[in-house]
Amino acid sequence: NAGVTQTPKFRILKIGQSMTLQCAQDMNHNYMYWYRQDPGMGLKLIYYSVGAGITDKGEVPNGYNVSRSTTEDFPLRLELAAPSQTSVYFCASSYPGTGGRLGEQYFGPGTRLTVT
Amino acid sequence: QQQVKQSPQSLIVQKGGISIINCAYENTAFDYFPWYQQFPGKGPALLIAIRPDVSEKKEGRFTISFNKSAKQFSLHIMDSQPGDSATYFCAASMFSGNTPLVFGKGTRLSVIA
């Protein structure tokens, strides 16, 4: 299994440009998440999904959009990029349940985005 | 509103020593408390997790201590090694981990020889 994959690894955007961060998982996980990580600030939830066709906002959704048309893919769309969106973006997935390591979130390697 | 507070921000420990990182939470509905480990340039990975029906969980050199009445939990790394140098995040969620995690701000641990 490849686990959670993210593309691209790095990207530089100009202010006002748009882009889509790709995320895919091959573990048949129902739940998927997008976080952003800023230095010294931990990880903040942008959007999450509990299954295909279902998405919900997290703590910092402004400036972002998501869709979930399949179980495997969960792309994050940035419209009109702003310098405040400079960050490292992580996608994660998990399988719902209890006991053992169920509920564990598996993270991708991240996308480092700079908006100038 | 920061729901999970983590301290210290950074920690330097001698090789072989004990590393201790503390977290406090506010929401009494939280019932799943994991610790994630992150190496530079990598995504976080689950290290160990605890549910509030036990006060301690140990996996190898890593132990979580949990105090439900104080709403606090901590990570202890025994016999710390240079390979443990990483950033550690505590987190919390509800419904046994089936809701999004709320993360602390992280602790950068450096283990020096």
* Tally of strands of chain A: 11
Mean pLDDT across every amino acid position of chain B? 94
Shape descriptor of chain A reads globular
| Count of separate DSSP helical elements of chain A | 0
Task: Give a structural overview.
The complex is a heterodimer of chains A (116) and B (113). Chain A contains no helices and eleven strands. In chain A, the strands form two sheets. In chain A, strands 2, 4, 5, 6, 9, 10 and 11 form a seven-stranded mixed β-sheet that branches. Chain A has strands at 4-7, 10-13, 19-25, 31-37, 43-51, 54-57, 64-66, 76-78, 87-94, 106-107, 111-115. Chain A has 116 residues and is mostly beta strands. The relative contact order of chain A is 0.33. In chain A, a hairpin with a 2-residue loop joins strand 5 (43-51) and strand 6 (54-57). Chain B is mainly β. The mean pLDDT of chain B is 94. Helices cover 0% and strands 52% of the residues of chain B. Chain B has strands spanning 4-7, 10-14, 19-25, 33-38, 45-50, 56-59, 62-67, 72-77, 86-92, 102-103, 107-112. Chain B is globular and about 40 Å long. In chain B, the strands form two sheets. In chain B, strands 2, 4, 5, 9, 10 and 11 form a six-stranded mixed β-sheet that branches. Chain B has a five-stranded antiparallel β-sheet with strand order 1-3-8-7-6, with no helix packed on it. Chains A and B meet through strand 4, strand 5 and strand 9 of A and strand 5 and strand 10 of B.
Give a quick precis of the structure:
The complex is a heterodimer of chains A (116) and B (113). Chain A has 116 residues and is mostly beta strands.
Key features?
heterodimer; A: 116 residues; mainly beta; 11 strands; globular; B: 113 residues; six-stranded mixed β-sheet; five-stranded antiparallel β-sheet
SSE topology sketch:
The complex is a heterodimer of chains A (116) and B (113).
Chain A lengths: L3 E4 L2 E4 L5 E7 L5 E7 L5 E9 L2 E4 L6 E3 L9 E3 L8 E8 L11 E2 L3 E5 L1
Parallel strand pairs in A: 2-11
Antiparallel strand pairs in A: 1-3, 3-8, 4-5, 4-9, 5-6, 7-8, 9-10, 9-11
Chain B lengths: L3 E4 L2 E5 L4 E7 L7 E6 L6 E6 L5 E4 L2 E6 L4 E6 L8 E7 L9 E2 L3 E6 L1
Parallel strand pairs in B: 2-11
Antiparallel strand pairs in B: 1-3, 3-8, 4-5, 4-9, 6-7, 7-8, 9-10, 9-11
